[in-house]
Amino acid sequence: MIKSYRSIGEVVGPLMAVENVSGVKYDELVEIEMQDGTIRRGQVLEVSDDRALVQVFEGAAGVNLEGSKARFMGHPFMLSVSEDMIGRVFDGLGEPKDGGEPLIPEKRLDINGEPINPMARDYPDEFIQTGVSAIDHLNTLVRGQKLPIFSAAGLPHQELAAQIARQAKVLNSDENFAVVFAAIGITFEEANFFIDDFRETGALEHSVMFLNLASDPAMERISTPKMALTAAEYLAFEKGMHVLVIMTDLTNYCEALREISAARREVPGRRGYPGYMYTNLATLYERAGRIRGKKGSVTQIPILTMPEGDITHPIPDLTGYITEGQIILDRSLQEAGVNPPIDALTSLSRLKDKGTGEGKTRDDHAATMNQLYAAYSRGKEAKELAAILGETALSKADQIHARFAERFEKEYINQGFTTNRTIEETLDLGWELLSMIPRDELKRIKDDMLDKHLTKEGLI
Fold first, then answer.
1. Is the pLDDT of residue 156 over 90?
2. Is residue 445 within 8 Å of residue 368, measured between CB atoms?
């Protein structure tokens, strides 16, 4: 039931208090009619007795306490969804932004979604190929997983996000695949980069884009990932599609949470962020998954920039507790010209063992992954030792591993942002690099697998 009130009592920043209300619910959609007849939208943040605290999406500046009217719509914020969303660009409030025809919705869905029943969840175990070797081979992404990318200011996470969006696909499956891309609080230049890249490469044909600019209100920043995840859930669980959701930058989302919390005069938590930020992030990340009996799935790659590159900062720290691993970008690799600058040793996918092996990728996947990790780690240590003592102080084996580490970074990790490698090409490249190491040093691969892939002269 729609109810209108002219009892706006106070306006503070993006917040507005409406007095003498009844029957108003948390998260309810509000329309604010200004003096000149224009309409702004808002959302109920808090209800206390007969007082409702409303957050205005476009900001409350210019709201006249006597001449404006608040209309409570009786339902939460809804997103109009349809399969025709694929190939379209929307803003952070779900309105078309590409100049195309208005969307004819099949239904309207609550953007807050509904929690997946834990008993109905299906375990993630299907390999998703991103075309990026350091992810596919070493930190495998599986369908239904949430695997964030931890970056820092100045690192090329936007380019990596665009690369994954245009290259990702589910192997050994004829089911439909779609990408839902949510850009949160980005600059106009970054927005143009994503739109142009998606259009030029054809990625937009199987993608849904939600763009929220840095100049847009903070409330829209909070709604953008919810819009994207609602669209993803619709395509996955009602249309049976495999959906990959890429969200960048979650740090801007958390900054918006902090801004709104400060406006509400809440007691701050760590570094000024609200104490409920962990719960709030979990409501986003836990919308990834698979449901028994349904073909579709939602897989997430949230991207966040660590303030000052600090992995102990509350945003990456809390994200790490909720998600199943993390891909970490390293500044020293980027400065050395390695792109994408993925730090293989500190990155982790906790579900990688579930999506690899014969029938999913290849039988030598796990063994070569473990051996590459071991060889690269030893090579890095050898290079650090050589920097102190000189290369001549190293044993012959350590010198070989040091050269291996250099080739590993330049040839394996450094594939650029346009190269799309299949998992077979990545595995073969791994064997080629391992062939430079003496066989008796390859202790993490069984003899029969070595016999199959190596000879005394190296790679077959």
1. yes
2. yes
Confidence of residue 382 (pLDDT cuts 50, 70, 90): very high
CA count, 13 A, side-chain hemisphere, 406: 9
Q: Which helix (H) or strand (E) holds 78?
A: strand 78-81
pLDDT for 93: 87
Considering the chain, tell me which residue range(s) the CATH 2.40.30.20 domain(s) occupy: 3-76
Count CB atoms within 10 A of the CB of residue 169: 15
Amino acid 174: pLDDT: 63
Kindly list the distances between the CA atom of residue 215 and the CA atoms of 12, 43, 106, 191, in Å, as whole numbers in the listed order. 19, 20, 31, 12
In the chain, which residues fall in CATH 3.40.50.12240?
79-354
- Show Cβ contacts of residue 343 under 8 Å, excluding neighbours closer than 6 positions: 328, 329, 330, 333
286 has pLDDT over 50: yes
What topology does CATH give the domain 79-354? Rossmann fold (3.40.50)
Question: Residue 64 — very low, low, confident or very high, per pLDDT cuts 50/70/90?
Answer: confident
How many C-beta atoms surround the C-beta of residue 85 within 10 A?
Answer: 25
Structure tokens at 14: 């993006």
Considering the domain 3-76 in this protein, what is its CATH number?
2.40.30.20
Which residue in this structure is represented by tokens 């608040």?
70
pTM: 0.90
